[in-house]
Amino acid sequence: MRILSAVVISLVFWAAARRAALVPGRGQNLAEMALDFVRVNIAEEVLGERRARPYVPLLTTMFFAILAMNITGIVPLLNIASTSTVTVPLLLAVVAWIAFVVAGIRAHGVFGYVKTSLFPAGVPWPVYIILAPIELVSTFILRPATLTIRLMANMLAGHLLLVLFFSMTSWLFLEASGALKVVGTLTFAAGFAFTVFEIFVAVLQAYIFTLLTAVYISLSVEAH
């Protein structure tokens, strides 16, 4: 499903771009709107227009890759998001970690980046004894960990909810007797409602992951 997601999202943008024109058609227009959403509402909103430019390709790829792998959770006959197992969110979190560390080193140098990350300016020096270890864990361990857990947990929870409601619906319609069959209508309606909600969650989680990556890059580039 990961390969399928990558192929489909690549074909979608290839189809939109292969006949790119100054006056865009419907497909090209939709693709440009989607790309502009990431560029304007995530990259430039967080990093500013000039600083965002080098990171737009990374953030755009990250957003649409996560979205494509999330949305497979509600596609019939697929029915599981590739991001509901830990490997994909962890890999994406490592990429985000590398991106904001490299951005910080480019902006401040290795020593300068470590100094600005662990020893924020304007703090009395005795406080650094407590603050530096907290900043170390928060910046270099918790950031990728929370990115991983947030994406995986949300998509796994959605998958389990859909499995629960549709399995219950199947049992009530096919195995239950009497008035219990009527309850199957309610569980089916709940399953359908959660399917629609999962579409929203799929987009939201792609947005949050990409937005936080941009925020972490911005924090690395800016001095405290």
TrEMBL record:
Membrane topology type: Multi-pass membrane protein
Transmembrane segments: 55-78, 90-111, 123-142, 154-174, 186-219
An MF annotation (GO) of this entry: proton-transporting ATP synthase activity, rotational mechanism
InterPro entries, A to Z: ATP_synth_F0_asu, ATP_synth_F0_asu_AS, ATP_synth_F0_asu_bact/mt, F0_ATP_A_sf
Compartmental location: Cell membrane; Membrane
One GO CC term on file: proton-transporting ATP synthase complex
Protein origin, superkingdom: Bacteria
Entry-linked SUPFAM superfamilies: F1F0 ATP synthase subunit A (SSF81336)
Alphabetical UniProt keywords: ATP synthesis, Cell membrane, CF(0), Hydrogen ion transport, Ion transport, Membrane, Transmembrane, Transmembrane helix, Transport
Similarity-based family: Belongs to the ATPase A chain family.
Summary of the function given for this chain in its UniProt record: Key component of the proton channel; it plays a direct role in the translocation of protons across the membrane.
Protein's recorded name: ATP synthase subunit a
